Amino acid sequence: MHRRQFLQFAGAGAAAGLARAQAAPPPFQGEKSKLKITGVRLVKTRPKRPLPTYQPAPGSWSTGGVEVANPMSIYPKYKAMRSLFMPDAGKLGGFTVEISTDKGVKGYGSGGPAGGEIVMGHFTKLLLGEDPFNVERIWDILWRSSMYYGRAGVVINAISGVDLAVWDLIGNAMGMPVYKLLGGETKPLGRIPAYCTGNDIEQHLKFGFKRLKLAIPYGPADGREGQKKNTELVKNTREVLGPDGDIMLDCWMSWTERYTLEMAEMVAPYRVYWMEEVLQPHDYEGFGRLNAAIKSTRIATGEHEYTRYGFRQLLEHHSASIWQPDIHWCGGLTEIRRIAALAAAYDIPVIPHTGGVQDCVHFVMATPNSPWAELFIPPPGGPKEVYERFEEEHQITRGPEGIYTRPNDRPGFGWEIEVT
What we know:
The chain is built from 13 helices and 14 strands. It has 420 residues and is an alpha/beta fold. The chain has 2 domains: 37-175, 2-Layer Sandwich (Enolase-like, domain 1), CATH 3.30.390.10; 180-414, TIM Barrel (Alpha-Beta Barrel). Strands 5, 6, 7, 8, 9, 10, 11, 12 and 13 form a 9-stranded mixed β-sheet that branches. The protein has a 3-stranded antiparallel β-sheet with strand order 1-3-4. A two-stranded antiparallel sheet has the order 2-14. Helix 2 (115-127) packs across helix 4. It is globular, with a radius of gyration of 24 Å.
């Protein structure tokens, strides 16, 4: 066969093959999951193996019971602790939603404050009858239908909880952990380096953490004396941690630009890895100026930012070197993946707020530009069982970077809960 004849024959064969492919699509196209959402309800849950209750050791740290710098620190009436200005216990809290199907498969997801009212008052009618495997369609329907009164805050808290419940349901239906649905492990040895948040420093070091995030007690309302006390906390932490561990500062929307510049200079000798949420979350320009001016540490923010559109503002203003979305507030797993993809294009690490909790840790494991997970160890003073269970539930291991965690391999997010 001459070359020209071969090419003509090959071309004809390829064209015929393409025509057959177009006429007969692969059998999986057009397939449906054969599941239909038939129930949506808010539930209270408890662990299948409840932990013993205990009174934390006197003087142990708690963001609700000790002074932590916050946006309300300028008002003496509310300065002492967050619980003075936050809703009372049981009011406008977070929520857990159960989504069930006609085949009995269920999923559970949690969202941020007050979102439950939106789920039951609006989203339920949009969810009933939907195929839960159409997770992108469901997210978009909830987003578009609430855009005229939502786009941030409570409504996105609601979308977050529903989205997480849908992903949990899909994992349960497939018999697979969510991180495998997302593409599997991206971390060496299948474990995620973790840091611990809180000021029970001795406990955290004894446990094995080499990365510590401190809750900063003081802000501009405390003047120069408060700055000195903040610096002393950082200095003392560096002394007990040693030269190689990492220190991060959580400033919880409480500082100003000038105060941040001064604090960055004061703590520079102690090698702070990042300073977090130093300004109010909507001050994209202010964050951008700080991110450009401060060279001794990194600016991190995003805990109180919503959806990829909010994070696009951080990007356009060069507001932060590290992004910190909360999976229960930013739009759920579907949206945090979009946020991470946006960040990846600019080599920005995504280290989620509460990233080590049982649902978000699946995202961290499956996302290359999400390097660390945040953990909160139970307060000191409890029985041994409390800390053994913490290690078990978070799959704790130890190594060169201190503490590591990973998701469990049970289907979905692997919840071991029962509805009360």
